[in-house]
Amino acid sequence: MGEAAGVGELSGDDVDANFSPAPIDVNVDGLKDFRAWLGRELDANLRPGAHGILNDHLMGVRFGWRNAGTHVAAARQRYADSLEASTANLVQYVNASEVLIDAILQVVTNYRASDLSATDSSKILTDILGGVFAGRNSPDVDRSSEDRREQHRMKPDVSP
Amino acid sequence: MSDDQGAIHYLGAAPVGVGPYEVWQLYGLDELWEMVRDEDGVASFTQVGAWHRMAELCSEQADQLQRALDQLMVHWPARPGSAAELFRVQTEGLIASMRNSAAAAAATEQPLADIAMALGRAKDQVGVLIAQKAVYDRQERTLAARGVYPGRGATALLSPSGQVPPEGWRQQLDEQARRIMAKTDATVGAAAALITPALRYALANPKSDGGPPVGQGQSTNRGLASAPPSAFFVASDIPAHQVAPSAELSAGLDDPVLSGGSMQPGSPSRGQEAGGFSGGQALPIRPAMFANVLPPGGLIGASGPIVRPVASAPSGIGQQSADQGIRAGSERAPMITPAARGLGVQGQSGRTGVVPGGRRRRRSDPTDPWAVSQGVPAILEPEPEPLDHDPGPGVIGIDR
Lengths: 160, 400
Known about the structure:
The structure holds 2 protein chains of 2 kinds.
Chain A: H1 28-57, H2 70-113, H3 121-134, H4 145-154
Helix pairs in contact in A: 1-2, 2-3
Chain B: H1 20-23, H2 29-36, H3 42-75, H4 83-144, H5 169-192, H6 222-226, H7 240-243, H8 247-251, H9 256-259, H10 317-327
Helix pairs in contact in B: 2-4, 2-5, 3-4, 4-5
């Protein structure tokens, strides 16, 4: 399992979040660290782990195929439901991690590009982030998962 | 539900006057053996390991992600209505779903092992009865074949008492098999009650109706419908509407191996059309994505349906699955067991496959049981024949 130690280490002059008046205090390096960690975790653990599990789960229900028992039939149904939900979730976890990586990239890019002291900067970022989570309409996040993974592999830190 | 109500779905509505106890009476030893003979448990125990790994993976990922998120929120304060809060909500939804999946996987592990063991035990016990039946059959045939004194109508010799099968042995064996099946059915039902499917997860869409993020205790199917295929899924040839299995979509699916449906013993078992599987209840769950996992050695982005080799279970269940999947017109075949687990990957009969030792298996003809292996070139070979012949000295008639 990867370590989270690289994620945004606190420095001595970090300000307590409770007393920060505006999102100006965002530590962009912390966002970049989070994004890099998430990418490493995805490639090193989540994706290969999920792949191995799916290989086994996709065999489907392999007991009681011919059994006439009512309870056995119900067990098959219940187990099939469980397999289906779990395999779908594993796929979604990988997808969600990729979306989070994209979202962080969007945030970092816009934090760099915009005037963070502007009053509506938070709304702009929220809209951008909402677009990322909503889906797949933005050309920046509408790339295929394979493209995202390949880009991450080739250029692990392209954020500004 | 009592133990004896099993199999009632198997015949559809029970005949009038047939109570729960009599339902199992409708089957004889041979039919009951057909129900359990393929229960080797190999695939199920492989999945037990997969559930264990999934519980560990999801739990560890959730812990790590939570830790990282906590640190991130220090640098990116999540104030109400901010992008940071939106990000935090999404990530916490993911974490909650991972924890839910970990719990579901951990809860499924032991029941699945119990089910596989119960069915395997039933196979062993009914198998003993089958062997006993063969002995009694042989004894009965021997008795029937005794010589008869000509003209007297009496048998030649009485068999020793040990060679005479007991009276009513067929009924006794049938009854024992029925009790085994009823008990097994109850055991499986009790174990299956502990299986709890995980809640479906999907990223919440903040631009939609504003519902709460899923993965925090809400079950949904939206994720599969809206998300693009994952990097390790090849679904380019699957229409989008098939990516989300729905009740209507899956109701007509006829693959009992993946769907959890049951097959009727005594019915045309292998490679029959879908109509052959008249298991009474349609057990319709089969995610369309089951067909879309890239097989070992497959090409990402390859077009056309994927038909993967099938692991052949020793007792034939894998073979049945393969035959059924292929002959029924399905484009899909069950997933193979990875060779990395030491089980090996073996294709269907007549195909070259990989056996546990990693050696290539030679192509063989399954229809010829008498085929022998072709030998390799001999190490010791005779010298080549001389071109001329010399009989040697002193041979009469040859003038040297």
